[in-house]
Write a structure and sequence with these properties.
about 475 residues, about 35% helix
Length: about 475
């Protein structure tokens, strides 16, 4: 069975024609993981129950002859998302033997739609690093396109495994960069959705005020099909109240090959021109040309009033508060109740230990500690930043703003800190709450992928789906690792 680049639609056609069944597909993916993940190190644990899930689904299909939306689709889950029967470690020693009592809500939704959790994926410990993906439980994940390079962080395991065709679809989390960064570095589609669209219940937090969970897939269509299942209200996540009445009956209706025709796309040159790598810059300019070829109007040099000032001092390191609440609600152990307990148990990573030490002593804004740290809908600084961006988009009648997800190539693993030159993902959407999608933009030398990012208005996922799908279908940059 050729697993390369299989999509949800491909698999469902094969099921209906009898070409293969769920059990055969799951076994083929498990065999591929065993054969190929030794060098990449992207999977933290395979699901020993995956074949039983597949067997039950095959029986269901024989009886009903109908397919649920994600029927028999192998799913890779980042190791900070509660998945019953599998450890949820967040890459840490403190949680290495934590088995949650139940699935996170989004896992319940995906399984109810027919998805099969085939494996958990490695990650940057506690989701601390945008640069690389190294845990105390599994170690270092490598980029499958070039094993000397990082897959980015923190969802690097999901990025590397989905890129390597170890599963059909994947889940990542994103506090600042962690869906879009690894998706860009691994030639994937990554959706950071509007804060409030998807529940974060049952997920080990970093900064819950910024955290999002979303799809990391090889195609826009597959990512949209995942989003369609997981979007919606959750009484356990109060932020999802803001999404009420703003979710369409389905998202797949926006998969429009002509989606760029007549679209007005603004270019944030202040991000694009921030010390870019020549090859990445060339790919971005080609992307603008390709969008014009598809009928889009490119609006150059969009300037947001007071952008530099508004973008500063947006971070509030709420890790202690959020983590201790998660430990109390889900882990429920006398020995692991506080950040001090986590620090006492320790880490194998000097990077993680240093970050933990810094986060232990601060939960406030650095420059303006008197301004309360709120969510994207009530925090005065966050609202002001978003309004400045959306007002400019309204003034220029823009459908989206674009920029490279990273201005530079992936760093070498050995020099992940020295060669990290920043990314564009952490500057806007984590703070404003706006949706931002990355799609493959091409490759630089060394067989290293690059990503193009589209930023939209709040709850404008339908518009971003149209634009990203149209660009993807016109360019088809995605390719498997060698």
């Amino acid at each position: 069975m050729d697993l390369k680049e299989l999509t949800i639609s491909d698999i469902h056609v094969a099921y209906q024609s009898g070409k293969f069944n769920s059990q055969q597909l799951v076994q083929a993916y498990l065999d591929r993981i065993e054969e190929m993940d030794k060098d990449i190190n992207s999977i933290s644990m395979v699901n020993s129950n995956a074949m039983e899930m597949a067997k039950a689904l095959d029986k269901e299909f024989q009886e009903t002859k109908t397919l649920r939306p994600l029927y028999g689709i192998p799913l890779i889950v980042k190791d900070n998302i509660n998945t019953k029967g599998l450890p949820t470690t967040a890459g840490s020693l403190a949680l290495q033997d934590f088995y949650p009592e139940e699935d996170a809500l989004i896992i319940k939704k995906l399984v109810a739609a027919g998805a099969i959790v085939i494996a958990k994926s490695n990650m940057a410990e506690w989701a601390f690093s945008p640069m690389h993906s190294e845990s105390s439980t599994v170690g270092i994940t490598r980029n499958p396109y070039n094993l000397e390079y990082v897959p980015a962080g923190s969802s690097g395991g999901t990025g590397a495994s989905v890129a390597s065709n170890f599963g059909t679809i994947g889940l990542g989390t994103d506090t600042g960069n962690s869906i879009r960064g690894p998706s860009s570095h691994n030639a994937l589609v990554g959706f950071r959705t509007t804060l409030g669209l998807v529940s974060r219940e049952g997920i080990v937090p970093l900064y819950l005020r910024n955290d999002v969970v979303g799809p990391m897939c090889r195609t826009v269509e597959d990512a949209v099909k995942v989003l369609e299942v997981i979007a919606g209200y959750d009484p356990q996540d109060s932020l999802t109240l803001y999404g009420e009445g703003k979710i369409p009956s389905n998202y797949t209706q926006y998969l429009d090959r002509e989606g760029l025709k007549g679209a007005r796309i603004g270019v944030l040159r202040n991000l694009v021109e921030n010390n870019p790598d020549d090859e990445v810059y060339t790919l971005f300019e080609k992307a603008l040309f390709d969008m014009e070829e598809q009928g889009a109007e490119i609006i150059e040099n969009v300037e947001i009033a007071d952008f530099e000032k508004l973008s500063q001092d947006q971070w509030c390191p709420t890790f202690r508060l959020d983590l201790e609440d998660f430990l109390k609600t889900h882990v429920k152990r006398d020995t692991v109740q506080s950040l001090e307990d986590i620090m006492r148990i320790g880490s194998k990573s000097a990077y993680t230990s240093d970050r933990m030490e810094r986060l232990s002593s601060n939960t406030l804004r650095r420059e303006n500690p008197d301004i309360p740290c709120g969510d994207a809908y009530t925090d005065l600084r966050r609202v002001a930043f978003r309004e400045a961006i959306e007002n400019k988009m309204d003034e220029l009648q823009l459908d989206a703003l674009v920029y490279p997800s990273w201005n530079n190539k992936p760093a070498r693993i050995t020099f992940f800190e020295e060669e990290y030159k920043g990314d564009n993902s952490q500057i806007i959407s984590p703070h404003t709450g706006q949706p931002a999608f990355t799609v493959p933009m091409g490759f630089t030398s060394g067989n290293l992928p690059a990503g193009l990012q589209f930023l939209g208005r709040m709850f404008d996922e339908p518009v971003l789906i149209k634009l990203t799908y149209s660009y993807e279908q016109a360019t088809m940059h995605r390719k498997s690792p060698n």
